[in-house]
Amino acid sequence: MKIKLTNAGKRYSREWIFRNLNYEFLPTLKYAVTGANGSGKSTLLQVLSGALVLNEGSVECLVNGKNIEADIINAHISIAAPYLELIEEMTAKEFLLFHGSFKNYIDSFSVERILEEANLANAANKQIRFFSSGMKQRLKLAQAIFSDVPVVLLDEPCTNLDVSGFELYYRWIEKYCAGRLVIISSNDKNEYAFCQQIINIQNYKVVKPATA
Fold first, then answer.
1. What domain range is 151 assigned to?
2. 104 lies in some domain
3. Cβ–Cβ under 8 Å, residues 59 and 3
4. Residue 57 near residue 8, CB atoms below 8 Å
5. Is the four-CA dihedral 170, 174, 177, 180 of positive or negative sign?
6. CA dist list (Å): 198 to 71, 85, 90, 106, 126
7. Per-residue pLDDT tens for 121-172?
8. Which tens digits make up the pLDDT trace of 75-99?
9. Distance CA 154, CA 30 (A)
10. Separation CA 141–CA 79 (nearest Å)
11. Measured between alpha carbons, how far is residue 101 from residues 130, 133, 159 in Å?
């Protein structure tokens, strides 16, 4: 799947977060969206996921040259982000079963196998509210990366991960994201060192005119 932005602009109130953004995210490649904190990286990812609507311009999700209708974009995209909360009353197993009712998992992975991959098998029946921050992040990444979709969006993917968590993340990207479009929002080079393309969102800021 290809994602195409044409003269894309998003603003909150009178402030433009980005504007005049023309870009194509091509299938199978890995992209990093960089920029300082608060520069609009997460906003762009939410636009790409269909969660936010542009104020001007367009975003198209194209499969074999045909644009996917907005109401089914979610079926082709998975996302993990700090602002997307887990259902903490559920156990890890319940959460993955629930998520799997909306999207299939790659290679028909079972929930049990995904929990093993995430080093969470021993916590399968533990409520998520009792998880450490690192365990929660591994679960977030698992539901996104193991979803059988052509596009994976990851916002600050290694938040709260220790060294072993980083190693797990790299392995998953290499082993399970080959052949998929991956877009990572981050200002930490360790999270996107493998990306082929880098976009600095600050290049699409509206420059305010100087005052006298």
1. 2-204
2. yes
3. yes
4. yes
5. positive
6. 29, 27, 37, 27, 39
7. 999 999 999 999 999 999 999 999 999 999 999 999 999 999 999 999 999 9
8. 899 999 999 999 999 999 999 999 9
9. 11
10. 8
11. 24, 25, 27
- The CATH number that applies at residue 97 is 3.40.50.300
Tokens of 77: 């995209």
Q: Into how many domains does the chain fold?
A: 1
- Beta-carbon neighbour count of residue 33 at 10 Å? 28
In a domain, 212, yes or no: no
Only one residue has tokens 């490649």, namely 29
Asked if residue 211 is part of any domain, the answer here is: no
With CA atoms as reference, report the closest residue to 72 among 146, 9, 1. Answer: 1
In a domain, 210, yes or no: no
Global pTM reads 0.93
- Residue 106: its H or E element: none
Strand pairing category for 77-80 and 2-12: unpaired
